[in-house]
């Protein structure tokens, strides 16, 4: 039978800690899903139709204004198009662009009929000079047609949790059913920044890549001015159409904290993003929450020791608000283990929840070997015939 033991601990950087141990048999597993939620937030009003500040690791919303409203997002659309391109196999394979796909209005990376290019180069063309030709060329290469790729975009968006989003074009050109929300775009950016290729490309102010017939070196320049003057800026993507206005998705890193800022239709977006980043970096600090897990023991059956210590194998450096947070620990631990036990053997997990959202999991393992109490040896038997 499962038992639940709960007691309260107190640490200086936490407003509350609840510690729960769930004892399970060695064959049971915990398959709960980590979900980021929006807490109730308040803050200054900004000159935008919508805006949000999200801490990237936990998904905590630090500031929000009209964050779920359906709004046009212009070329910030290319965050998803580039991510899908970079998630394909063999992104450095060279192919010839579809001549019809690259015949599109608006910003361009300079593709021409017969050019040879790779998906990686197209991602560079999307994220730096915001090439509509790059977005369409990638779409046709991956899905065979732009409508088919749009279907992939909407499917991928749903997998991320973007419930207030509908994509109609790979490039972000206006469409009657092409929209998203500030919160959804923050979720998308949080997902995209986990991709190392995406992170590297969007954080470059200038980048060299190859395309043409034959391919040759080209230098591309990023439209994101924050990369030049904001310390720790990562990117991510600019956007503009007459319908959408100025749209900007930015991210920056400071003292181990990554913040994502989204504004939609914000005329003074560079200044607004700078102010929001400065304000909310000071509102978050990194703490090692693994320190809140006390010493744990698991009984050993048939061993030279009655128990073994369950120790964590990692630290949990987690950003939390400077004014504190509710932190809970849910530990799933074996009721007992049979000897022999080996050092490093899996014993359970410690799940860390911050303000009710599951943020981090630590594996718990044995800190030592525990041999069998008795070594059983097979003895030869004698058959005697009388």
What are the key terms here?
single chain; 386 residues; alpha+beta; eight-stranded mixed sheet; five-stranded antiparallel sheet; 19 strands; disordered N terminus; disordered C terminus
Number of helices: 8
Mean pLDDT: 87
Oligomer: single chain
Helix and strand sequence? EEEEHEEHHHHHEEHEEEHEEEEEEEE
Would you identify the regions where 5 or more consecutive residues have pLDDT less than 50?
A: 1-39, 376-386
Q: What would you say this structure looks like, in words?
A:
With 386 residues, this protein is of the alpha+beta class. It contains 8 helices and 19 strands. The strands form 5 sheets. An 8-stranded mixed β-sheet has the order 1-2-16-18-19-14-13-17, with no helix packed on it. Strands 4-3-11-10-9 form a 5-stranded antiparallel β-sheet, with helices on both faces.
Write a concise synopsis of the structure shown.
21% of the residues lie in helices and 32% in strands. It is α+β, with helices and mostly antiparallel strands and 386 residues long.
Fold topology:
Elements: E1 4-9, E2 16-24, E3 50-55, E4 61-65, H1 78-86, E5 95-96, E6 116-117, H2 119-127, H3 132-143, H4 146-160, H5 182-192, H6 196-202, E7 206-212, E8 215-221, H7 226-229, E9 233-241, E10 245-254, E11 257-264, H8 269-281, E12 284-288, E13 296-301, E14 307-312, E15 317-321, E16 326-334, E17 337-338, E18 346-354, E19 357-366
Parallel strand pairs: 2-16, 13-17
Antiparallel strand pairs: 1-2, 3-4, 3-11, 5-6, 7-8, 9-10, 10-11, 12-15, 13-14, 14-19, 16-18, 18-19
Helix pairs in contact: 1-2, 1-3, 2-3, 2-6, 3-4
């Amino acid at each position: 039978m499962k038992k639940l033991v709960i007691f309260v601990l107190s640490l200086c950087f936490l407003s509350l800690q609840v510690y729960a141990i769930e004892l399970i048999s060695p064959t049971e597993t915990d398959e709960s899903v980590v979900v980021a939620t929006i807490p109730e937030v308040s803050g200054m009003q900004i000159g935008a139709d919508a805006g949000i500040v999200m801490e990237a690791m936990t998904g905590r919303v630090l500031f929000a204004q009209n964050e779920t409203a359906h709004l046009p997002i212009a070329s910030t659309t290319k965050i998803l198009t580039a991510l899908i391109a970079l998630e394909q196999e063999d992104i450095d394979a060279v192919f010839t662009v579809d001549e019809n796909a690259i015949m599109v209005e608006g910003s361009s990376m300079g593709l021409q009929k017969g050019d040879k290019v790779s998906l990686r180069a197209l991602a560079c063309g999307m994220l730096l000079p915001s090439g509509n030709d790059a977005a369409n060329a990638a779409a046709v290469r991956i899905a065979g047609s732009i409508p088919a790729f749009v279907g992939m975009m909407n499917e991928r968006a749903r997998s991320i949790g973007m419930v207030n989003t509908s994509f109609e074009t790979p490039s972000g050109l206006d469409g009657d059913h092409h929209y998203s929300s500030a919160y959804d775009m923050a979720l998308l950016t949080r997902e995209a920044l986990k991709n190392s290729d995406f992170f590297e490309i969007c954080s470059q102010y200038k980048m060299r890549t190859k395309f043409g017939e034959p391919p040759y070196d080209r230098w591309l320049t990023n439209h994101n001015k924050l990369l030049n003057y904001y310390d720790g800026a990562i990117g991510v993507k600019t956007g503009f159409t007459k319908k959408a206005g100025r749209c900007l998705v930015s991210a920056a890193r400071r003292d181990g904290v990554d913040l994502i800022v989204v504004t939609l239709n914000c005329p003074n977006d560079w200044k607004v993003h700078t102010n929001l980043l400065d304000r909310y970096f000071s509102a978050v600090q990194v703490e090692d929450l693994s320190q809140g897990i006390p010493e744990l023991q698991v009984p050993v059956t048939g061993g030279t020791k009655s128990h073994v210590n369950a120790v964590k194998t990692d630290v949990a450096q987690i950003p939390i608000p400077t004014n504190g947070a509710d932190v809970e620990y849910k530990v799933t631990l074996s009721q007992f283990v049979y000897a022999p036990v080996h050092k490093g053997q899996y014993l359970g997990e410690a799940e860390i929840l911050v303000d009710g959202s599951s943020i981090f999991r630590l594996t718990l393992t044995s800190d030592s070997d525990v041999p069998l109490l008795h070594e059983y040896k097979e003895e030869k038997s004698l058959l005697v015939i009388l």
